[in-house]
Structure formats: C-alpha cells, structure tokens
Amino acid sequence: MALHVTRPTISQLRALAEASAAHELTYSPVGITAGGTAPPGYRHGHWSRRLGNGRPVFERASDALRDWRMQSRSGLVVAHPGQPDVGAVVAMAAPLPVGYIDVVCRVVAVDDQDDQFGFTYGTLPVHPEQGEESFVIVIAPDGAVTVEITAVSRSRHPLARAFPPIARRLQHIATNRYLDAMQSLVAE
After folding, report:
1. Tell me, what CATH number does 92's domain have?
2. What DSSP designation does 33 have?
3. Each residue's pLDDT tens digit, 158-177
C-alpha cells in the first residue's frame, strides 16, 4: 500500500491494477454485502439517498455508475478497466487530509436489471480495508430513484487498526462524497 503526497497519475494507477490482477481478495466470503450478517470483526453500513424521479434520472445515474463517474466526482483518481465487469480490477487513489492512498479492488458482482443497476467490488491486498462495497441505483414502481451503498469491512492497515475512529470517519466522509457526487451527476 502506498501513500502519495501528490496526486498519482492514471498511468501509475493502471500499472498498479495490472500488478494486482493476480492477487486474491483479502476477505471471505464473497457476497457479504448482499445480505445476512457481517462476519465477526466487520462493520456493516448501508446508506441511501433519493436522487429524483423517473426513468431519465435512473438512466443518468446508472450511466454515471457504469462509467465510474461517481468515484471520480467524489475525489478519487480512478484507473478503471471500462464498464464494471466481474473480475475487472480497478485501481484508485483516495484523497486523505494530506495526500492520497492507493486502493485496489476487483469487481465481484454486477446487477443489471430493468429496475436497478449496480456492482460490488472487493478489496485486494493494496487497500487499507478488507471487505466489499456495493453501489446500486434503484427505480421503485412509483418512479423514485435512489442510490444505495452497502459496505461490509474491517480495517486491515496497521494505522487504520491503531486509530479505528479515524478510519471510520474517513470511510463516512468517502461515502458522503459518493452520495453527493451521484446527486450532482444526475442534476446535470
């Protein structure tokens, strides 16, 4: 795991994704965000925000998620492999109060239905956490569109384990940035 004082380039992150492609996930079981109880020692979080109404809002939000724009707009530097596909590896640099930290994940599930679109990624060794995070855009029968984020994780990096309140606070800030980013993307 690397900390950077300056923003990493997309080419640096692409090289990191390629170097991480053969790595195993850092947790089990795969699918822990899909329901059930979090494994011992893992935190479970679920956040949701209403984005608006109607099929056009749903399509804009789904397209933004497909193109990784929610992550980019939230402040992450993203080297993505194209649209989320199971097995794809994405490398990102997450902003910290000072600098950036590398995070690498593998897409473990994609849910593409008429009334929802989303994907889940799981952590690889270059990540301060262990676990999964899912991002889903849902359109309800009444036309209400929401973005839902579910995370099941625990701190992996020694600094994150040494200061759990700070690690939780950083995750909370990142999640709120995701929600704010998606809200601004559908308003465009």
Report:
1. 3.30.530.20
2. G
3. 666 566 666 666 677 788 99
